[in-house]
């Protein structure tokens, strides 16, 4: 596992030799950790069956001012803690013992709609990414991401936005686009306004809210309202699913 003191820009290396933890959780109090004056107090839970990785990740996030409310080694315990603590964001690995991670993600989004799931894993397989999106995950990052990228993903997830590792997003969208061409999917549903369709197209092209606002010459607040309307009208959970819908509809 990487040493956060020597390599503060990278997440701790995954150590497959690490013994699995016992079935305990560790709720934390951030007292004693220095936070920057502008740090947002984000309440995050870590779910990973490798205790050394969790410890290193916890240290890195607490240095960024994140409040780690709990840790869990598997999906079942994660569900129990979500019921009790309702964290803002759950950072979860894919490969864990016990409950299937897809089922855990679905149950978390059902039990606590305001709690967002951010997947942090070593898998860049298209199928895993698609399963995560369809299960309701609000982001998908690789374990070799920088701490800055992870913080961006956590902040995005906490407000209902999404972040996917760029090379993964490109692969998945290419796959969806190819499948859409083969199956001859239809056009965008007519209940979307012209402006909402423009916003949806830009989401699928990887633009964030500020970039969409700049391109369309509208305020970020207006962009956020458009996105909320899009998600409601299309009956989908997040921006990732919106991007998938846009590709399948032939917008990009």
List keywords for this structure.
Arc Repressor Mutant, subunit A, 252 residues, 47% helix, Rossmann fold, 2 domains, alpha/beta
Q: Given the helix and strand composition, which structural class is it?
A: alpha/beta
Global geometry = globular
Which strand-content bin applies to the residues? 5-15%
Question: What are the segments in which pLDDT stays under 50 over at least 5 consecutive residues?
Answer: 1-9, 13-39
The neighbouring-strand order within the major sheet is: 2-1-3-4-5-6
Tell me the series of helices and strands, N- to C-terminal.
EHEHEHEHEHEHHHHH
What fold name goes in the CATH topology slot of the largest domain? Rossmann fold
Distance between the termini: 40 Å
For the record, the CATH class of the largest domain is Alpha Beta
Note the total helix count.
10
The radius of gyration computed from the alpha-carbon positions, rounded to a whole number of angstroms, is 18 Å
Q: Would you identify the CATH architecture of the largest domain?
A: 3-Layer(aba) Sandwich
Number of strands: 6
Number of domains: 2
Query: What portion of residues is helical?
Result: 40-55%
CATH superfamily of the largest domain: Response regulator
**Main sheet summary:** 6 strands, parallel
Mean pLDDT across residues: 77
What does this structure look like?
The chain is an alpha/beta fold. The protein folds into two domains: 43-164, Rossmann fold (3-Layer(aba) Sandwich); 185-248, Arc Repressor Mutant, subunit A. The chain is 47% helix and 11% strand. It is built from ten helices and six strands. Helix 5 links the parallel strand 5 (139-142) and strand 6 (163-164). The radius of gyration is 18 Å and the shape is globular. 38% of the residues are buried.
């Amino acid at each position: 596992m990487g040493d956060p003191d020597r390599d503060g820009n990278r997440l701790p290396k995954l150590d497959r030799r690490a013994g699995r933890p016992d079935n305990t959780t560790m709720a934390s109090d951030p007292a004693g950790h220095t936070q920057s004056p502008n740090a947002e107090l984000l309440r995050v839970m870590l779910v990973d069956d490798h205790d050394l990785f969790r410890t290193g990740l916890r240290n890195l996030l607490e240095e960024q001012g994140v409040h780690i409310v709990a840790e869990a080694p598997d999906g079942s315990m994660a569900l129990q803690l979500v019921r009790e603590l309702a964290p803002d964001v759950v950072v979860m690995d894919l490969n864990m013992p016990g409950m299937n991670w897809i089922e855990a993600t679905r149950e978390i989004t059902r039990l606590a709609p305001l709690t967002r799931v951010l997947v942090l894993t070593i898998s860049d397989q298209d199928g895993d990414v698609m399963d995560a999106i369809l299960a309701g995950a609000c982001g998908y990052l690789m374990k070799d991401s920088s701490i800055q990228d992870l913080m961006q993903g956590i902040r995005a997830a906490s407000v209902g936005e999404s972040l996917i590792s760029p090379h993964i997003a490109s692969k998945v969208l290419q796959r969806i686009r190819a499948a859409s061409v083969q199956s001859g999917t239809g056009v965008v549903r007519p209940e979307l306004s012209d402006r909402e369709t423009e916003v949806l197209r830009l989401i699928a092209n990887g633009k964030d809210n500020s970039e969409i606002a700049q391109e369309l010459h509208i305020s970020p607040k207006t962009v956020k309202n458009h996105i909320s309307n899009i998600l409601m009208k299309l009956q989908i959970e997040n921006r990732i699913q919106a991007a998938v819908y846009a590709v399948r509809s032939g917008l990009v």
